[in-house]
Structures are given as structure tokens and as C-alpha cells.
What does this fold into?
Amino acid sequence: MSKEQQCSHGRLDWDNLAADALELARLMPPGPERNDALKLASQLRCTADTRGLVFAKRGRPRK
It folds into this structure.
């Protein structure tokens, strides 16, 4: 994988990775491997959320 492809993960890419990981984890039989896969999917979802757009808070302007 080239350097450009490694750094070009946008929010949609992370959303897709998280959705795929969650789908695969749900298909696994119950057990410790499934729990670990669900935790990983949750971490990917959090990463996708943090890489999303950041907006300024509404209200009073900063001083």
C-alpha cells in the first residue's frame, strides 16, 4: 500500500471499516473471539467519530 493510500482515510472510509468489522463480529459464534471483535469494531466506530467534521460551538463568540 502506498503512502498516499495510507494517509487518505477519510471519515467515510473509517465508517465503512467500522461497519464491516461490526458485521463480521456479529456473524461470529459467541465466545472470547467475538467479544474481542466487537471491542475492535467499537474502537473503529470511535475513531470514525473523532475523525469527523469538527464544528465550533454555537453561542457567544470567543474573546
Notes: The mean pLDDT is 78.
